[in-house]
Amino acid sequence: MWNQGCSQASGETLNHKATSSKKAHLEIFPCTVSQLLAAPQLCKDSFTICDCELKQVSVVGVIRGFALFETNVQYTVDDMTGPPLNVKLWVNMEDSARTTVASPGMYVKVIGSLRSYSEQRSLLAMNVRRVKDLNEISSHMLEVVQAHMQVFRKVFDVNMNLTVVPQPDWSSGTRPRGVLPNGLSTVQGQVLHQIQVFSVHNDGINFHDLTRNLDYISIGDIRSSLAFLASEGHIFSTIDKHHFKAV
Questions:
Q1: Of 155, 170, 195, which residue constitutes the final position of a domain?
Q2: Range of the domain at 129
Q3: Is the pLDDT reported for residue 246 higher than 80?
Q4: Confidence of residue 182 (pLDDT cuts 50, 70, 90)
Q5: What is the C-alpha to C-alpha distance for residues 220 and 198, in angstroms, rounded to an integer?
Q6: Which of 137, 155, 173 is the last residue of a domain?
Q7: pLDDT value at position 185?
Q8: Between 186-197 and 219-231, two packed helices, what is the crossing angle to 10 degrees?
Q9: With a threshold of 0.90, does the pTM exceed it?
Q10: According to its UniProt record, where is this protein located (predicted)?
Q11: Contacts of 213 (CB under 8 A, 6+ apart)
């Protein structure tokens, strides 16, 4: 999925130019909006995430605002990780009619370059494509995690926090107490089961109902289980970051 999503996705591959950063080797760097807004700025229109200088990036989110001008289209894209990000797509008159298919409420994938003007950051889009399969939303989040693991050789959760993953010793042939056959802890298994039960609904289950149904488990343990299950691809967010469905 990583190679396809980063270098072959729907013919959206963009040429990558060599940079001074020794780690800038991803053609298109999958990001969240919060990462782009917090990325350190080296100089004008040059940003980094740690040692990786950002060239082309990809973001997946829902359109909150839309404005069509004669020479460009401006969107406000929200992926629920931070404040919405302004996106500008230059178009000609012939393109403008086709671009209107992306309207508020629709999920889109944006590929472009981060820019800063008057201390306001925006994304100069090379391509804005409507997301028709909602699985692509969770797929993008997994690509974000995978990109950082590939670049930094460390393990992150979906919020890009460093995580410590214990490596159980199963060489004896016996499974540690509290670990299920699928490798999940007892708490993680219960959280996943609740989400699976409610996945028959379009929106899945929200965090409030999840904590109410599992009131014997601490909220902190539920949150950490959600982060782990999302990073492992067992669950994904639906209408917002507080609603979940099982894969």
A1: 155
A2: 29-155
A3: yes
A4: low
A5: 21
A6: 155
A7: 79
A8: 80
A9: no
A10: Nucleus
A11: 194
